[in-house]
Write a structure and sequence with these properties.
Oligomer: homodimer
CATH class of the largest domain in chain A: Alpha Beta
Shape of chain A: elongated
CATH topology of the largest domain in chain A: Rossmann fold
CATH superfamily of the largest domain in chain A: Response regulator
Radius of gyration of chain A: 25 Å
Distance between the termini of chain A: 43 Å
Number of strands of chain A: 12
Largest sheet of chain A: 7 strands, mixed
DNA sequence: CTGTTAGCGCTTTCAC
DNA sequence: GTGAAAGCGCTAACAG
């Protein structure tokens, strides 16, 4: 049997209440007594039963997700996963609330973050827009004792506890590697489509992509980045323009969302143009385009994993508990036609 | 506040003990009373607090892992992950035991399985060798009320509750897809290295690989499969022989373990031969070979995920609880030089 | 400062 | 058949 608080109390010659005070670093214990109890805890090899503690406290973890209201399948997927987590709230002792904010708008995030300062949830997960004022607002929340996790796009330099998302520089490099090898001996130009250079994940993907292309595949020249704001309509127009203006384009890297528009362009260009395409995020649209051979590879981050991981981490950090790093690492999934889930 | 057993008791006008009997399907309740209680449970929308129940029962889940004593890094990794799970046993209420059996030996697995019949652990996870007697022994355990999970290699046709491993047909197809596209316009032969055709995972990978090569890349002819028994020494000898006998080999698919031997051969052949290689399982050896360009892509299953997932599933099945399917799906990871974890 | 006591939600004797 | 009461490991009033 694992040792319990009773065993500590007996060993240290004190009452349960005192043991509890020491265990939870609450005041009202003499230094000497405290030391005695800590000694006993160590001697005996005690580890707290978190489930029992939570039961006694009737603890629930109030959690907040701040998500952009982007009209793209990926963000819809994230929202859907959060909703499923809400459905599981009972068993997981969580109370989850979602705040939707306009996309690519730092001030909206800051406002949401500041609104939470008084509410003091156990944890906040946000899709961060990379701006100093967001960083400051995050740091304030952390200082107020809230556990903060960035989701999908990170906020380096801030004091957030954890990032639940993929390594986007590696993602860009991987895209370049695949595109380069798939293109093989061909020669020509490569177009890059992004959402916005305001979000860190897009910037990093571009950075990784451009770097590896330059290092390993200098035979392909990169066209200037096209920013489609993750908007299918706009993307469609921009890509059509790019393709008609640049007849030598043989490859496309779509590093943002709004691929519905890209796919439309690809379909229209199909008989004449032979394009090798790598895109991000597996959605109903990109999936069927992959199957049809319009897209050659999809890089993906598992939204379900990201959301579940963010919740686990927020809970753990709220209690000052350790996480299992490998379990919380968000993989960059590579999907080809043949390994679709 | 979520409804509790007390609420049910009050609503049904019975005592807690009776509610508990109904909840746990124990005898000693009149049919009429039982119905009344079940009614109340439904009306009130009760869901049991598993943590509290486990606390009251001082429940621990005795779990057994049956693993082959293969001298390869992948199985060592699995064992390592199980050990880490043992270290977490306290908080997870598990008591994990490992039984090691000789590799590729159905009778050893059967003996282990039968030995467990009397012990009746809550769950058993095994790396299955595909044989009728193993299937029968698994079915017996399931019939005895033990929850059984196959790990890494499945046992279709048996009554195991769950398979914690990758889709190996898809893995083989993915390997073919990568190899075919990476080889591009070249022409020549492709060699396939397996561990043993006795294990289902290897057979399935081969099947998927051969099928896709035939469909999509008929320009490459496949050499007969080489069986290296996952043994680095043997693999080294066999691959050396294959390479010298077949000068037209331009690609290799290593679908089993023992890649240490393969890598040795690759190093030795290096200046003269230009080989495109796809291998399975990320280990210290394959990782550095990937970095050095000896291997072009590695297909991997995350041993840590597999072990943690197996444990979650065994526990859930033992209690008749639902799992989150997406969380328990083991991905086929594709690693290139650029997306190594 | 320290201890006693009554729960958290559920299970389990042991009576009736 | 059914119920009262004690207790799982921990926390939180409330006394002293």
């Amino acid at each position: 049997m694992r040792p319990t608080v009773h065993d500590i109390a007996a060993a240290a010659g004190v009452s349960l209440a005192t043991v509890d005070r020491v265990l939870n670093q609450r005041p009202g214990v003499r230094q000497a007594t405290r030391r005695k109890v800590e000694e006993a805890i160590r001697e005996i090899g005690y580890v707290r039963d978190v489930a029992a503690a939570n039961l006694a406290k009737s603890r629930v973890y109030p959690l907040v997700f701040i998500l952009p209201t982007s009209d793209n399948s990926f963000m819809h997927g994230v929202l859907e996963e959060v909703k499923q987590a809400v459905a599981r709230s009972g068993g997981e002792r969580t109370a989850i609330r979602v705040i939707e904010v306009p996309a690519f708008d730092p001030s909206a995030i800051v406002a949401a973050l500041q609104g939470l300062a008084s509410e003091k949830p156990a944890g906040v997960a946000l899709v961060a827009t990379d701006a100093p004022e967001v960083r400051a607002a995050v740091d304030d929340l952390v200082a107020a004792g809230v556990s903060v996790v960035t989701l999908v796009s990170d906020l380096t330099g801030s004091r957030r506890h954890h990032y639940a998302g993929v390594d986007n520089i590696a993602a860009g490099r991987t895209a370049a590697h695949l595109l380069g090898r798939f293109l093989g001996a061909k020669e020509g130009e490569v177009a890059v489509l992004a959402g916005s250079m305001l979000v860190r994940d897009h910037r990093e993907r571009l950075e990784g992509f451009a770097a590896l292309m330059a290092e390993q595949f200098p035979q392909f020249s990169l066209l200037p980045v096209v920013e489609g704001r993750d908007d299918p309509e706009l993307v469609n127009v921009l890509i059509n323009a790019t393709l008609s203006k640049n007849p030598r384009v043989i490859g496309i890297y779509s590093l943002g969302a709004g691929n519905r528009g890209l796919i439309k362009s690809l379909k229209e260009s199909r008989p004449q143009r032979d394009l090798t395409v790598v895109a991000h995020e597996l959605t109903a649209h990109t999936r069927s385009a992959l199957k049809d051979g319009l897209i050659d590879a999809i890089l993906n981050q598992d939204a379900g994993h990201e959301v579940r991981s963010a919740i686990r981490v927020m809970k753990a950090k709220a209690d000052g508990l350790a996480i299992i790093p490998a379990q919380e690492r968000i993989r960059l999934d590579i999907f080809l036609k043949d390994n679709l889930p």
